[in-house]
């Protein structure tokens, strides 16, 4: 008799898993929808974790005759809690994609117009080692850099650190969440984490600005916000577009693009002037209140109405609602935050608003996470140190706490402050993540070595000299995923569910082999990826066999909220929440955020907005056959009234031209909608793939990145803001 899974069963299992400090339990077979078949077939259940986005939810693969036939969520995973999102469910589409990179490749043609020669692994590694050594001899090791995204990057960072490389950058910093992290670090001395430390399930009031939560799956976070709604939480969403999450909101504020700062400053002023702030909290934990108050005096609700197009009554109402629900309020920090160039300051304004409401460290606001760490592999030699001899790349951006792709690109073009001649690019489709493609191509043409490590022939691959095909996340041991949550932490294991297909290999293997060629064997003493992980588990007192069996080990403990016994510490210079930032003032920036007017679209143009499709993770999935069946191209959202004025019809194909006269390749279908303001158009990012190797994705829709021909740089941390581009619609495509 099959056992039906119920919520009660799951809670019981999850409760058992988190009852003690290191207690865990096996995945209950009855959770798995197909468990009743277990005794009847040659079937294995192998837990691992998803890489179709950075959330890294735990999954369990059903493997029959060495083939994955189905996946389910792992109920023990804190990131997914037994559930997978629509795209996460498409693991088989990633694993069995016929267009995958299959063999090492050497480009015998030009960068951008490749002529591929199939190579052996030994040939590829010999060539890379030779070129690395030549660059090191000629320019110094500072001329090598790595740009990365994804779990397996850890092995490449280890190899390159061992070689002496000091320049590592992730587009997820300068092109995405860097400004919000720095804005919060400057205010609280801490960032908001990833997954973010939002206490949505306990919130009474939530405000999201430009967040695409739900379209951006954020599995457990979506579950938390739904839980918050069921307990009565109210939601206000500020967005020029009625996003999926806005459609669930109590209030949608369709703000004029580029004016969010005006709204935030007006809210700060109202909360101060109407005495809605948490006086005891502000007095005890913050500094700079009087300076903040003085600096926001001009930002009245009426002034903000003129800037934002949101009525002053609504601005006042929302501020009062927040004040009434404080401190159980969460004003979300957002994720993709590089919008207009003053993004660190906008994030500071969000951080300050939360501080006034007393939400940092309070139920329903931002919780204090429970930390977790897996020790490094024991007994490794120390990395060589070359930082002192290499001028700092990001000196122009004083709060670039991580290195930026912006500076790597500039140094590669100008040779200043020192030449960069070799790039290792791991899992990053730079043609789509970095603004200004022509500038990126100019930088690439100045390189002596470009190595790309990926699973798919994405657009960027065509610019590489050597391509190393990594096996997918379903076929490899990988770095641990360590997550900090409310009252719990988690260590997740990625392990192979099947053998790697074709000649693809895991990064632990590639780096060990290349390390041997470079004379760095001492840095790679492990026999294989499994031993590497097992030894680290052992060093951390974790049971590796248990981790292999369950996929995750959860630890319980830690107080998420401020109490008399649990007082917060702020790693800022003052040791307090800095409403006024002396650090910023000393470097010549506004110590309290101020409003900057940004350009608006000229006549006949629309602001180009872009974002995630619910069923795709950008170009990582636009070739995935399980997802292309559901959405194969992107659409151009156009305000229905405006579209009719222009004579546009639903479903009609059009072309797009940027303000700089650049026409995007291909054509895009119009979607007339009332869910968008009339001064902007919107499309999903990741489509309009140019690479002919991506057979299903090639030429489907338009690439917004073709149209991002200008960007602003955040002077505080070097982020590249891409929302200042305007496009014209051209009929007759
Ligand atoms: Fe995978 Fe979806 Fe989880 Fe992202 S949210 S890791 S795509 S299941």
Q: How would you characterize the overall build of this protein?
A:
- With 733 residues, the chain is α/β, with parallel strands linked by helices.
- The protein has 22 helices and 27 strands.
- The protein has a 7-stranded mixed β-sheet.
- Helix 4 runs parallel beside helix 16 (507-517) and helix 7 crosses helix 11 (312-325).
- The chain is globular.
- Iron/sulfur cluster binds at residues 50, 52-53, 55-57, 80, 84-85, 87-88, 217, 219.
Under the CATH scheme, the architecture of the domain at 189-369 and 561-586 is: 3-Layer(aba) Sandwich
Please give the CATH class of the domain at 189-369 and 561-586.
Alpha Beta
How are strands sequenced across the largest beta sheet? 5-4-15-14-13-6-7
Distance between the termini: 59 Å
- Number of beta-strand segments: 27
The backbone outline, from C-alpha atoms, is globular
Low-confidence stretches: 1-38
User: In angstroms, what is the radius of gyration?
Assistant: 25 Å
Q: Which range best describes the helical content: under 10%, 10-25%, 25-40%, 40-55%, 55-70% or over 70%?
A: 25-40%
CATH superfamily of the domain at 189-369 and 561-586, by name, is Dimethylsulfoxide Reductase, domain 2
- CATH topology name of the domain at 189-369 and 561-586, in short, is Dimethylsulfoxide Reductase, domain 2
Q: Residue-averaged pLDDT, rounded?
A: 93
Helices, by number, come to 22
Largest sheet: 7 strands, mixed
Q: Hey, roughly how much beta strand do the residues contain? A: 15-25%
Which structural class is indicated by helix and strand composition?
A: alpha/beta
**Ligand identities:** iron/sulfur cluster
């Amino acid at each position: 008799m099959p056992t039906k899974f119920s919520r009660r069963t799951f809670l019981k299992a999850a409760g058992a898993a988190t009852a003690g400090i290191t207690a865990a339990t096996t995945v209950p077979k009855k959770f798995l929808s197909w468990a009743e078949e277990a005794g009847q077939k040659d079937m294995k259940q192998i837990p691992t974790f998803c890489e179709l986005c950075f959330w890294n939810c735990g999954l369990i693969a059903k493997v029959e005759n060495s083939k994955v036939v189905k996946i389910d969520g792992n109920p023990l995973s804190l990131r997914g809690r037994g559930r997978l999102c629509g795209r996460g469910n498409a693991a088989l589409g990633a694993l069995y994609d016929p267009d995958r990179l299959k063999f090492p490749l050497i480009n015998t043609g030009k960068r951008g117009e490749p002529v591929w020669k199939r190579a052996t692994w030994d040939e590829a590694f010999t060539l890379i080692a030779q070129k690395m050594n030549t660059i090191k001899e000629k320019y110094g090791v500072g001329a090598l850099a790595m740009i990365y995204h994804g779990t397996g990057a850890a092995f490449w960072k280890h190899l390159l650190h061992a070689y002496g490389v000091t320049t590592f950058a992730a587009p997820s910093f300068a092109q995405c969440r860097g400004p919000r992290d720095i804005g919060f670090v400057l205010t609280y001395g801490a960032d908001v984490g990833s997954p973010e430390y939002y206490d949505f399930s306990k919130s009474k009031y939530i405000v999201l600005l430009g967040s695409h939560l739900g379209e951006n799956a954020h599995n457990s976070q979506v579950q938390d916000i739904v839980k918050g709604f069921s307990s009565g939480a109210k939601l206000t969403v500020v967005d020029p577009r009625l996003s999926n999450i806005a459609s669930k909101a109590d209030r949608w504020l369709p703000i004029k693009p580029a004016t969010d700062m005006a709204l935030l400053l007006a809210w700060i002023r109202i909360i101060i002037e109407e005495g809605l702030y948490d006086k005891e909290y502000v007095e005890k934990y913050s500094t700079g209140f009087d300076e903040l108050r003085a600096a926001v005096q001009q930002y009245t609700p009426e002034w903000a109405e003129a800037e934002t197009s949101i009525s002053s009554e609504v601005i006042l109402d929302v501020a009062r609602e927040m004040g009434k629900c404080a401190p159980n309020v969460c004003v979300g920090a957002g994720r993709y935050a590089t919008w207009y160039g003053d993004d660190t300051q906008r994030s500071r304004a969000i951080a300050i608003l939360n501080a006034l409401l007393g939400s940092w460290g309070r139920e329903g606001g931002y919780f204090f996470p429970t930390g977790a760490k897996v020790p490094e592999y024991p007994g490794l030699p120390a990395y060589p140190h070359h930082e002192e001899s290499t001028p700092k790349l990001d000196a122009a951006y004083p709060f670039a706490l991580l290195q930026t792709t912006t500076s790597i690109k500039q140094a590669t073009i100008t040779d200043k402050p020192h030449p960069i001649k070799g790039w290792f690019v791991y899992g990053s489709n730079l043609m789509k993540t970095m603004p200004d493609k022509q500038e990126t191509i100019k930088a690439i043409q100045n390189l002596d070595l470009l190595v790309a490590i990926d699973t798919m022939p994405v657009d960027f691959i065509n610019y590489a000299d050597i391509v190393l095909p990594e096996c997918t996340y379903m076929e490899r041991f990988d770095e641990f995923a360590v997550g900090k949550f409310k009252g719990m932490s988690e260590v997740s294991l990625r392990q192979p569910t099947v053998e790697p297909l074709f000649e693809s290999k895991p990064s632990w293997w590639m780096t060990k082999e290349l390390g041997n060629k470079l004379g760095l064997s001492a840095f790679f003493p492990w026999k294989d990826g499994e031993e590497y992980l097992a030894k680290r588990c052992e060093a951390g007192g974790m049971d590796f066999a248990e981790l292999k069996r369950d996929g995750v080990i959860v630890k319980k403990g830690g107080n998420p909220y401020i109490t008399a016994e649990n007082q917060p510490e702020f790693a800022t210079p003052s040791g307090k929440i800095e409403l006024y930032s002396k650090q910023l003032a000393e470097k010549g920036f506004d110590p309290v955020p101020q409003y900057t007017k940004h350009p608006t679209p000229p006549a006949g143009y629309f602001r180009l907005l872009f974002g995630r499709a619910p069923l795709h993770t950008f170009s990582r999935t636009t070739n995935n056959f399980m997802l292309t069946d559901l959405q194969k191209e992107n659409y151009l959202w156009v305000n229905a009234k405006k579209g009719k004025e222009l004579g546009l019809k639903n479903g009609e194909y059009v072309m797009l031209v940027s303000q700089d006269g650049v026409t995007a390749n291909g054509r895009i279908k119009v979607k007339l909608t009332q869910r968008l303001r009339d001064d902007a158009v919107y499309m999903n990012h990741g489509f309009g793939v140019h690479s002919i190797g991506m057979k299903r994705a090639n030429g489907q829709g338009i690439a917004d990145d073709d149209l991002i021909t200008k960007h602003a740089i955040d002077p505080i941390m070097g982020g590249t803001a891409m929302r200042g581009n305007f496009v014209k619609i051209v009929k007759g495509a």
